[in-house]
Amino acid sequence: MATALCGSFLREEFMTNSRALDLGKSTIRSGTGASPICVRLILLGALLCIVAGIPAAAQPKTKNVLILFSSIEQNPRFTDVVEPAIRKRVPEPIDFHIEYLSYLSYRVSQPAEGERLNQESEAETFRRRYAGLKLDLVIAVSPQALLFANEYRDKMFPGVPIVFTQLGTREFQGRKWPGVTGLTVPVGIGETIDLALRLHPDTSTVAIIQGQDWFWINVAQSELLRYHDKVRTIVFSDDPSPELLARVRALPAHTLVLFHLALPNEDGAEFGRRDLLDEVAKRWPTYSAWPANCLNYGCIGGAYPDLDKEHLATAQIAARVLSGERPDSIPIQHDSSLQVQVDWRQLQRWHIPESALPARSIVLFREPTVWHRYRDYILAAIAVMLAQAFLIAALLWQRARKRKAEAILRESEERFRVLANCTPAMIWMFNTEGKITYFNDRRITFTGQDPSAGYGDSWTSFIHPEDLPGVLDALSTGLKNHQPYSREYRLRRHDGVYRWMFGVASPRMDSHGSFAGFIGSSIDITDQKLARETLRKLSGSLMEAQEKERARIARELHDDVCQRLALLSLELAQESRSSNGSSARLEVIRKHCSEIAGDVQALSHRLHSSKLDYLGLVVALKGFCNEFSQQHQVNIDFADLNVPLDVPHEVSLCLFRIAQEALQNAMKYSGTRSFRVELTGTPDEVRLEVIDCGAGFDLNAAKQKRGLGLVSMRERVLLVHGRFFIESKPAEGTRITAVVPLSAAAEAPSHIEAVTESASEIGAR
Predict the structure, then answer these.
(1) Which of 229, 294, 401, 561 is most deeply packed, by most CB within 10 A?
(2) What residues contact residue 505 under an 8 Å CB cut-off, 6+ apart?
(3) Is 751 helix (H, G, I), strand (E, B) or coil?
């Protein structure tokens, strides 16, 4: 932060004070004025830079653009459009400098000796003014500005690229200078002549007041050759004077004037161009191909280029140069579009109907009609009268609507009460403060015959003390978030017996759409909970019986079948030795017998692991993983962390069986040969995860099939009050997770959300 402030401070202060001292009459559009205490501020900025330890040069470099006009009349609209358009396209900061040529008669043709001295003097002034500032671009606005900047560029700002604009396409057609590009626009002399003769079809004479610029005189005369059989041409090439005015006044009737002298008046002239235009426009219909010489000065109009479009095109070219493109690689653009623009006041003066104008003509300086002048007042009066009429009608309609709504509301309330009292559920309503405002008849009958019992805050006295905190928390959260909620709780019946209830509440809104409380219903689920608990006990009993039967079969296999197979293997080995190795068949049979004995022993371990009973969960599960890995030729990565030694038997057995089933399923369906088993313990629970990176499966399809393996694992976890999860997607592997509390006697979840979650976690991700 200090570095940015330091760099910005020094850069701004140095540029501001140096320009204020050296640049004279130039205008810096993005800087500040020179400070009277600039020396102190620079010293303070230097001190800040030393403290920050980073030089101000780290700030982005500021680009400098000089906009050169030939007269001040070109500036206002140009800079308002071009400057923001360039800043938008160039990311670096930009300082714009504005200059005007003091010698306005800079000629396109070869200047006289006196004019040359004035130009060289002005070029020297610019050189001194910008000697201490590196310019990145010069924008020359008008032919005079371009010729001056190009001719004296090596003296004033050598090597700086130039972008020009507002140059006539005909005047500069085919001309090109190194390091210069830009935009030419058409000068609509022919189009202006066509417009003038269209609006004045009885014209017999066209007078051209052009001064001594014979290029444009020749252009105008060549355009008038198209009408040589209808009109004759008179050219006035003298400087403005009373004598010239007298000659113009002597023009015959049915004459129109093309006034192409540049405005404003020359400094110190007794009778200048503006005076001449005022007098000519009063006597003859006057047109001009240059809008700055015509519009709002008494002329009727002409055909002109779109200035805003021209300015934006100039800004685009300038931005390309500032972004690093060479001007020589940017072709000069040539605009060809023209718009007819006329002065409405002059149309009225010369009685020219607007219908005579070409299509899409632009009419400027239109005086507002009575409607446009007093439109706001008229519309306001009409609006007041309409509003009064509307309010009267609305009041009458609202009165009728209110009566109808009251009748509908009474009918709706009666229908709701009948429906609420007929439903088998208990219905109630809370307000925004959590107080009961309504009970249906079934709720009143359940808790007692007193109709006022349970209203307000007294409803909490009917909730079982152990369930009340959870109910209040759920209600508080619902009132805060305006979200529906559900809860299982015990409610005292009128005979003092507590019954299990399942309550669901939804937010209700008033007529304005604001939260008004909750409406809810409760149903008695005591019988369902008893049935569910009975089923859980039955499932537990079946699994316990299954485990006992597994243990018995495992003992039989280990103590009887395995011993007999071992004895048979010894007898076969003894017989093989007694035959002095002559019977290879006996040796093969003995090996098969030994393998069968090993498989039967492994089967007995899978049916009932003695390690689980005597060595604990970690050793038993690790041993099973090793046996499973050797038997099926797979790789199992087993890891354990902080597993207690005294894990309850039912918890150990549950996790051991889940690991068995999960590995069997992974080996059959995953399509991979590498698995991971993680066993993690905490002071309160044990977590088992079986992971494979195989084919995976669709959980929704698995839930619909309800495979016995998944159901068995889930039931085992529920019996010890644990949580069971399966995460799997096709081609993304499978993760089976079981989390079991260390206390096998832990109570089951007391509310319906927990029970429902446990029952549906098989399909959860």
Answers:
(1) 294
(2) 430, 475, 478, 484, 485, 486, 518, 519, 520
(3) coil
Q: Are both 64-93+103-185+306-336 and 189-304+338-364 of the same fold?
A: yes
- With beta carbons less than 8 A apart as the criterion, state whether 183 and 162 touch: no
Tell me: domain 189-304+338-364, CATH 3.30.9.10, correct? no
Residue corresponding to tokens 């003859």: 284
**Domain ranges across the chain:** 1-59, 64-93+103-185+306-336, 189-304+338-364, 423-524, 525-608, 613-765
Q: 0.90 exceeded by the pTM?
A: no
* DSSP 8-state class, residue 463: B
Residues 6+ positions from 721 with CB-CB distance below 8 Å: 740, 741, 744, 746, 747, 748
10 Å CB burial of residue 392 (0-12, 13-18, 19+) is exposed
Query: What is the phi/psi pair of residue 510, to 5°?
Result: -85, -175
Smallest CA-to-CA distance from 485 within 471, 498, 499 is with: 471
Query: Is residue 92 over pLDDT 60?
Result: yes
Whose CA is closest to 546, among 608, 603, 599?
Answer: 608
CB-CB contact of 488 with 471 (8 Å):
no
Query: What order of strands is seen across the sheet that includes strand 205-209?
Result: 232-236, 205-209, 255-259, 286-287, 301-304, 339-343, 362-364
List, in sequence order, every residue forming a beta bridge with 100; answer none if it has no partner.
Answer: 69
Tokens found for residue 265 = 């008046």
Render pLDDT for 140-169 as a digit per residue (tens, 0 to 9). 998 888 989 988 999 998 999 999 998 887
CATH number of 613-765: 3.30.565.10
Residue type, 155: K
Secondary structure letter of residue 188 according to DSSP: B
What residues contact residue 479 under an 8 Å CB cut-off, 6+ apart?
Answer: 430, 432, 434, 518
What is the C-alpha to C-alpha distance for residues 206 and 617, in angstroms, rounded to an integer? 114
Fold of 64-93+103-185+306-336: Rossmann fold (3.40.50)
Taking residue 61's Cβ as centre, other Cβ atoms within 10 Å add up to 11
Is residue 721 within 8 A of residue 757, CB to CB? The reply is: no
Give yes or no for a contact between 236 and 207, defined as CB atoms under 8 angstroms apart.
yes
Q: Is residue 472 within 8 Å of 498, Cβ to Cβ?
A: no
Task: Compute the distance between CA of residue 435 and CA of residue 441 in angstroms, rounded to an integer.
Answer: 18
SS3 assignment, position 392 = helix
Three-state secondary structure readout of 644-694? CCCCCHHHHHHHHHHHHHHHHHHHHHCCCCEEEEEEEECCCEEEEEEEECC
Q: How far apart are the C-alpha atoms of 445 and 340, rounded to whole Å?
A: 90
pLDDT in tens, 668-721: 888 888 999 999 998 889 999 999 988 888 877 776 665 667 777 888 888 788
With beta carbons less than 8 A apart as the criterion, state whether 255 and 206 touch: yes
Q: Which CATH architecture has domain 423-524?
A: 2-Layer Sandwich (3.30)
Sheet holding 674-681, edge to edge: 635-641, 674-681, 685-692, 734-741, 723-728
With tokens 């446009």, the residue in question is 372
